[in-house]
């Protein structure tokens, strides 16, 4: 068995019922240690099988901001952990968010131990604007961690604008 993962190109579509979308089966060769780690993760997450985990991992990669075209519109969250030693960082975060009013839908803040805070932003916008927002937030000195998770599925319109 080779050390590197090799996907087999054999696809066989199956259909469980009229309500279930067609499934395509693939065969994947993995190093034994990697397969053992996959099985451990499946058990830890109490998933029914490997397919659910592998599908989730593929969906994450397909929605990855690095692979999106600049004008692709994505929805997602930005999770920040920052040192909250003074009110300056909260003010700086608010200032950056105000520059991205169309992209930042909402935010949630909680205090953590050791004088740190966690903030989650619900965002939607072009990949280019979301990248710029993340870059601006990362540049703030007190920000210790930042993670953007995106999806290509969009939020429904939050409110209708009427000209009148």
Give a quick rundown of the structure:
With 164 residues, the protein is an alpha+beta fold. It contains four helices and eight strands, in the order ββββααβαββαβ. The N and C termini lie far apart (69 Å).
Instruction: Determine the strand fraction and express it as a percent band.
Output: 25-35%
Largest beta-sheet characterization: 4 strands, antiparallel
**CA(first)-CA(last) distance:** 69 Å
Radius of gyration: 21 Å
Principal-axis shape equals globular
Mean pLDDT: 84
Strand pairing plus helix content: what structural class?
alpha+beta
Q: Count every helix, treating DSSP H or I runs of 4 or more residues as helices.
A: 4
How many beta-strand segments? Answer: 8
Q: Summarize the amount of helix as a percent range.
A: 25-40%
The ordered string of helix (H) and strand (E) elements is EEEEHHEHEEHE
As residue ranges, the low-confidence spans are: 1-12
Strand order of the largest sheet: 6-7-5-8
Please explain how this structure is put together.
The structure is a single chain. This protein is of the alpha+beta class. Helices cover 30% and strands 30% of the residues. It has a four-stranded antiparallel β-sheet. Strand 2 and strand 3 form a beta hairpin. The longest helix has 13 residues. It starts with 5 loop residues before the first strand and ends in a 13-residue tail after the last strand.
């Amino acid at each position: 068995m080779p050390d590197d993962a090799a996907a087999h190109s054999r696809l066989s579509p199956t259909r469980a019922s009229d309500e279930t979308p067609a499934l395509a089966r693939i065969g994947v060769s993995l190093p034994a240690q990697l397969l053992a780690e996959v099985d451990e993760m499946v058990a830890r997450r109490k998933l029914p099988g490997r397919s659910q985990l592998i599908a989730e991992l593929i969906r994450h990669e397909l929605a990855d901001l690095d692979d999106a075209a600049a004008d692709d519109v994505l929805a997602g969250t930005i999770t920040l952990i920052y040192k909250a030693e003074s009110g300056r960082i909260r003010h700086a975060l608010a200032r950056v968010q105000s520059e991205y009013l169309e992209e930042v839908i909402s935010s949630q803040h909680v205090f953590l131990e050791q004088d740190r805070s966690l903030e989650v932003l619900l965002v939607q916008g072009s990949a280019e604007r979301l990248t710029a927002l993340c870059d601006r937030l990362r540049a703030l000195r007190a920000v210790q961690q930042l993670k953007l998770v995106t999806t290509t599925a969009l939020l429904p319109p939050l409110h209708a604008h009427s000209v009148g």
